[in-house]
Amino acid sequence: MNSIPKAFDGWTVLVVEDEADSMDVAYRILTLAGATVLQAGNGQEALDILNNSTPDFILSDLSMPHMNGWELLETLKEDRRTIDIPVIALTAHTMPGDREKAIRAGFHNYISKPLDLSKLINQLVNILVDLPQFEDALKHFQ
Predict the structure, then answer these.
(1) What's the confidence (pLDDT) of residue 80?
(2) CATH number assigned to the domain comprising residue 78
(3) Per the count of CB atoms within 10 A, which of 3, 22, 73, 116 is most buried?
(4) Residue 2: which pLDDT band, with cuts at 50, 70 and 90?
């Protein structure tokens, strides 16, 4: 973890997570990678933040109170302002088929928890580099 690439320098990332330790890990590592990190404890808080901000991408837990990640994604996909923001699922529930289920639902991809400090930035770069809007900015971090 001594050398975190500044892969997300100047980016804004919304992390939607109700578990304090996971939020802390995501916040710290994304900040070290240069991102401005917005934080929401559930899907409804995320929607409130999105009224005033447009992040480059969203990391969202799937299991949260008030509005879970599945419901948040459904709401984002129904809104023209947020439909194109990539959303990556975060979950501790990793069973065979979960990744495919998340992608079928409209998540761009899936990262399992607990988050690994040494791998998170590389995981995100590898997930996001295939999107045309991010390809040029991220290909040299692969």
Answers:
(1) 95
(2) 3.40.50.2300
(3) 73
(4) low
